[in-house]
Amino acid sequence: MRTQRTGRKTRTWAALAAVGALALTACGGGDGKGSEADPPAGGSATPKRSVELPQLAGERLEVAAVWTGPEQENFTKVLKEFEKRTGATVTFVPAQDPIVTFLGTKVAGGQPPDVALLPQVGALTAAVQNKWAQPLGPEARAQLDKNYSKGWKDLGAVGGTQYGVYYKAANKSLIWYNAKAFQTAGAQVPKTWKDFLTTADTLSASGVPAVSVGGADGWTLTDWFENVYLSQAGPEMYDKLAKHEIKWTDASVGEALRTLASLFGRKDFLAGGQSGALATEFPKSVTQTFTGGDQPAAAMVFEGDFVAVNIAQTEAKIGTDALVFPFPAVGEKPPVVSGGDVAVALKPSKGAQALLTFLASPDAAEIQAAQGGFVSPNKAVDLAAYPNDIQRGIARSLIAAGDDFRFDMSDQAPAAFGGTPGAGEWKALQDFLANPSDVAGVQARLEADAAKAYGH
């Protein structure tokens, strides 16, 4: 069985790259000043009420997501506001990857959660094909039509029917860096991959490894590959590989892996070398970059805007100690890869539909935006809700781009290939990190796993 997105049109890629680069360049200085049109940052003490919700006194709901730590805590604040407005009781259920397997167990046991937040487009398609998902009701659809661009609505639809609300988005083409480590080393912010490697050399020569890689979580490695591939091979090839219309043994994949090997193959560039990177989980990859003043475990860490949540667990301040630049251009243009989490109802209940309506409104997103480490694709969200200029700039560029973006490639794939720990793309790229010289062997494993997952 081949699992892929439905109704996805070819997007213009350059627009988001340009606007994203401008936004990040503007906010990289950390001057603390917002746009004159922006009210003070940080949100209001009284949450907005732009949508009416039904009274659900006595109703109990369960919401499942793979979020943990601060991300889970911040989302719980959103659920508390929903409880306050409706009288319902909502319990957060921690899920495990792959979430399709987790939900399948729950459904088989007759106890599915009312709502699940799915981190992959393929997971939404699987939920619909397995007949777990419920179509959106009219109230939630009205919020989508009012607050979302067509591209984000299309991502939440399968076979022309709207099932999901993209509550959370991500710009997954960002490099966060320790400002003190850069200053001590005399390192420059790079614009191209060649410059990036030069910066890495400068940092390593100063005694600080260049990059902290969370290789214990295979999804971070898929994001590294996707950014290199999109910039180097271009959007048309990216779309073909995402749909498995070209094989992973294609020369373009080998070229991207060799480019990535110019970083992964340098033990001195990685915090702890290759073995240390493979033992480092994503949260630690961030916190160790912003701990230790000008002598951290590494000077840079790659990942999306959600990195801010983990930086907040350190003493570093975003905008001064922690700065950000766009993923460097490997080809003609820098890449912009987006991701997101889509909320879907798994029970035909009034409460589940009410929660989806709330999540599709700006009210819910503004609560979590104020906590940091969160970006919403909801164009009605007040930018003043974001806590600093960097996150406000990232959100502004996302909304300004409209439908012009490329979605995370592994999240479009069947979960068996693109979303399962210890298997498929996650495992193959972990093997590649351990031995970056084995390009052909990794390509062969990727193609074998992809062909099996896509059913051909």
TrEMBL record:
Keywords for the protein's UniProt record, in alphabetical order: Signal, Transport
UniProt family annotation: Belongs to the bacterial solute-binding protein 1 family.
Signal sequence bounds: 1-28
Keyword Signal: yes
InterPro entries in UniProt: Bact_solute-bd_prot1 (IPR050490), SBP (IPR006059)
Region (Disordered): 30-49
Protein name: ABC transporter substrate-binding protein
Pfam families: SBP_bac_8
Keyword Transport found: yes
